[in-house]
Specification:
The complex is a heterodimer of chains A (about 280) and B (about 300). With about 280 residues, chain A is an all-alpha fold. Chain A contains 13 helices and no strands. Helix content of chain A is about 75%, strand content about 0%. In chain B, α9 packs across α11. Chain B has about 300 residues and is an all-alpha fold. Chain B is about 70% helix and about 5% strand. The chains are: A mainly alpha (about 280), B mainly alpha (about 300). At the A-B interface, α1, α4, α5, α6 and α7 of A face α2, α4, α5, α6 and α9 of B.
Chain lengths: ~280, ~300
């Protein structure tokens, strides 16, 4: 009897949880479903949930008409490049903060985080001017640089919390055995830091991939990534729901896959390490 | 003496070299523009050139009807945006975390992922997805409400002055509710079993246990969420911009400080951009956020530490 009640409660609990989960996920699910409909079916009244003629037409049309691959390529280069650059700059900095802390370490970390308190719109104008002077407007290099800098505090902060967890004694032992600084970093620290660096890379790719504010303002045609592409597509409102859904689905697919595997690390990064 | 010289640590130049790129590059391209913005707010363009006007720009922003009307409107909207987040996001986050921490839950990973997915989407996509759903003509929302017999409740929420801001705040809550859920979930898990066992021995179980034991213990997590929300909300721009445009329609009813600043900086249909007033607004936002964060760090967090172990 007792067991029967438990099973029943378990089912109820699970059903409620799934109900809420589905409700929250519905908008995204709806976008994905809409992307497989024809334009007429997309705005059909009553709405069609599962029983419509599934078609891939939207995907091919989006690619043909607007050269989706070019935007995708820009996104890949900008997100990948800014992450790579950020990691190269941040690893040594985080390393020295974590293993050779000084009185100033906390100050430097706060110094870097301080700009996260400022509205991005507030520094847009000076950076915009700087970009015009340097001829970086609407170039992949320029956007890569800006996105790297926007996310640099998060990268440094995250790497710092990960490095902190590596016991310093192991590094000392390596030094006692005569490892040089280079060997110590390459053969002792790096293998232990790989999981931390990997999740930092993942978080940063997602953040750079999603970044809309800077990409919309600093690019026009040449260097525009997917976020700018979606924004440009949605201007003739109400038209092309199915095609815009297809474009959105293609833009979020890589993020959904990466996000699925890295939720915990994402939370850690998004809350500046408040959750481990 | 000689021994001391050997023991004395060598100057570790590599440390400086390691730190330099991150700190220097960052300072040059991010911090200097920040001070540039703060500096701009103290000057003004006149026919003879740029002159120093002290705090005149701030006075004008707060009192001159030409500016102050929009400013107070944006500030109030921004505050309302924040209030909605605090009132809706935190209770829902606690509820979701409580469900997630329920040991009877099956398929936990699926549930957690479904709720967390919106957080990792771009604002541009979120704006489009919700327009797709809420559109009064083509959207699916009226039909869904009809299914549960609540169709009379439907209104073109994004297009009505009285609803638009609240609707967008709720969309933003939808997007970010995964973060409070995960934070509170982690806090709930870190409550030592002994405490809960002791409570059970004293006959405190179920809802009473939640209100009297668990909730006070997760308060610090709620504090962190609140300050992150505060900073995020007063910096917000993207969602409003991608859903309603820089004019923050209808009739400026969704205008928050971020969009107001953007319009002022770059100008819009009826008005030329004004760098100095824009910088003044940016500085105001900076000070508002700084005040909020300091208040949290020096007043609220100190009191909360009493609860921690």
């Amino acid at each position: 009897m007792a067991r029967a009640v438990t099973t029943q409660r378990k089912t109820i609990n699970t059903t409620v949880a799934w109900g809420i989960g589905l409700l929250i996920f519905f908008p995204i699910l709806w976008t994905i479903l809409t992307s497989f409909k024809t334009e007429a079916q997309a705005i059909n009244d009553p709405p069609l949930f599962l029983f419509f003629d599934w078609t891939l037409e939207n995907y091919t049309v989006v690619q043909e008409r607007s050269d989706y691959m070019r935007f995708l390529w820009n996104s890949v280069i900008i997100a990948g490049g800014s992450t790579l650059l950020g990691i190269i700059i941040a690893v040594p900095a985080a390393w020295s903060m974590a293993f050779v802390p000084s009185r100033r370490t906390k100050d430097i970390l706060l110094w870097m985080l301080s700009t996260k308190m400022l509205p991005a719109v507030g520094v847009l104008y000076p950076i915009y001017l700087m970009f015009i002077q340097l001829g970086l407007l609407d170039t992949r290099i320029g956007l890569t640089l800006v996105l790297m800098l926007i996310n640099l505090p998060i990268i440094v902060w995250m790497l710092y919390t990960y490095f902190k967890e590596i016991p310093g004694e192991i590094l000392e032992a390596a030094r006692m055995d005569g490892a040089t600084l280079r060997e110590e970093i390459l053969y002792v620290l790096t293998p232990m830091a790989v999981p931390g660096i990997a999740s930092t890379v993942l978080l940063n790719i997602i953040l750079a991939w999603n970044e809309a504010f800077w990409t919309l303002n600093l690019t026009a045609a040449k260097a525009a990534p997917l976020t700018a592409f979606i924004a440009s597509y949605s201007s003739p409102e109400g038209l092309f729901y199915a095609k815009l859904s297809a474009a959105s689905t293609m833009a979020i697919a890589p993020i959904l896959i990466m996000g699925w595997f890295s939720q915990k690390q994402l939370v850690r990064g998004l809350t500046f390490g408040a959750v481990k | 003496m000689a021994q001391q010289a050997i023991l004395k640590k060598p100057v570790r130049w590599h440390i400086a070299v390691f730190l330099a790129p991150a700190v220097l590059v960052y300072t040059a391209i991010m911090i200097i523009p920040l001070f540039g913005t703060l500096q701009l707010s103290l000057f003004r363009e006149v026919e003879a050139g740029t002159i120093y006007v002290g705090l005149q720009n701030f006075r004008e922003l707060l009192t001159d009807p030409h500016w102050s009307q929009s400013f107070w409107n944006a500030l109030w909207n921004n505050t309302w945006f924040f209030i909605i987040h605090m009132l809706v996001q935190n209770p829902i986050g606690i509820l979701l975390a409580a469900i997630l921490s329920n040991p009877k839950l099956r398929m936990r990973a699926f549930y957690r992922t479904a709720i967390f997915v919106p957080t990792i989407l771009s604002f541009v996509i979120v704006g489009f997805v919700w327009k797709l759903i809420l559109s009064p003509i083509w959207g699916v929302a009226p039909n869904l409400l009809d299914l549960v017999g609540l169709k009379f409740l439907f209104a073109p929420w994004l297009g009505k002055e009285e609803y638009a801001l609240t609707t967008l705040a709720l969309v933003s809550v939808w997007q970010f509710v995964g973060i409070p859920m995960m934070l509170i979930y982690a806090a709930l898990l870190s409550i030592p079993d002994e405490i809960l066992e002791a409570a059970e021995c004293d006959g405190v179980t179920g809802m009473a246990q939640f209100w009297k034991i668990k909730l006070p213990l997760v308060l610090p997590a709620i504090g962190i969420i609140s300050i992150l929300t505060f900073v995020g909300n007063f910096n917000a721009f993207d969602l409003i911009y991608s859903a309603q445009g820089a004019l923050a329609g209808p009739n400026f009813s969704t205008d928050i400080l971020g969009t107001f600043l953007y319009r002022t900086f770059f100008g819009f249909q009826l008005q030329l951009g004004d760098t100095h007033m824009g910088a003044t607004i940016a500085s105001m936002m900076f000070f508002i956020i700084l005040t909020g964060v300091s208040l949290y760090l020096f007043v609220i967090q100190r009191r909360m530490q009493r609860y921690q172990f």
